[in-house]
Amino acid sequence: MKHSSSGRGFTLIEMLTVLAIIAILSALVLNLNTLAQHKAAMARAKQEIEAWSAAAESYKADQGAYPRLAGKTEGAVTGNPPTAASAPINPKTDGNPTQSNYKLASQYFYGQLAGDYDFNGTPDAGATVYMPFQASQLGRNAGDTTTVAYLQDPFGNSYGYSTSGMIDEECYQQSATLSNTTPPALRRKASMQRDSISGPRADRQPPQAPQTEHPFGRGG
């Protein structure tokens, strides 16, 4: 007796086609998942910056200025009229969060807001805590599990922090004050000397004051 069967197996081409479709769908799912994770990390970073900016405002209300230190968040001032040296981290030019200057400025900012001046992850006794930081926000260098080296963003990089715009504005204001207090006779003499070299003053535009910048970006 003969038995007939209407069923048949998949051909090699059909199997390859199915595998290709599965691979394409898997790649799309992975890409969508990566995009969702990236958006979530960006949203978290924005929230952290907003929270730390508010804490910096509280610090300023108590201390009279944002956390700042020459050599870490801004350049040192020298000369008369005063000028600021190149800032350790300049928000206009520095964009690499893996650089050591990013970490040093971020570490100082963390210590001032957390009241952790020895950077061991715990507020010092009697210190004012303006912002309690989570463990996931504290970055440490390889091989050192005790010292907080920088504030870490959701991508594992150091946050940037700079007060270079503030020191530049202060130098400008001090220079303007010195210029206004110079005796009139000396001002006329200096003006005549400049005119003999550069032409009439009316042809030259007055210097523009630098805009005040918030440590985390342009102020509102």
Describe what is shown at a glance.
The chain has 220 residues and is mostly helical. 45% of the residues lie in helices and 5% in strands.
Structure write-up:
With 220 residues, the chain is mainly alpha-helical. The protein has one domain (46-218). The protein contains 4 helices and 6 strands; from the N terminus they run H-E-E-H-E-E-H-H-E-E. The chain has helices at 12-63, 100-114, 164-181, 184-198; strands at 77-78, 83-84, 138-139, 150-151, 213-214, 217-218. It has a two-stranded antiparallel sheet with strand order 1-2. The chain has a two-stranded antiparallel ribbon with strand order 3-4. The longest helix is centred in the N-terminal third of the chain and has 52 residues, at 12-63.
As a whole number of angstroms, the C-alpha radius of gyration is: 29 Å
Going by helix content, strand content and strand pairing, the class is mainly alpha
The chain-level mean pLDDT equals: 79
**Fraction of residues in H or I helices:** 40-55%
Cα shape: elongated
Compute the separation of the termini in Å: 91 Å
What portion of residues belong to β-strands? Answer: 5-15%
Task: Characterize the largest beta sheet: strand count, sense, and whether it forms a barrel.
Answer: 2 strands, antiparallel
The helix count comes to 4
Low-pLDDT stretches are 189-207
In which order are the strands of the major sheet placed? 1-2
Instruction: Kindly state the number of beta strands.
Output: 6
Number of domain modules = 1
What string gives the helices and strands in order? HEEHEEHHEE
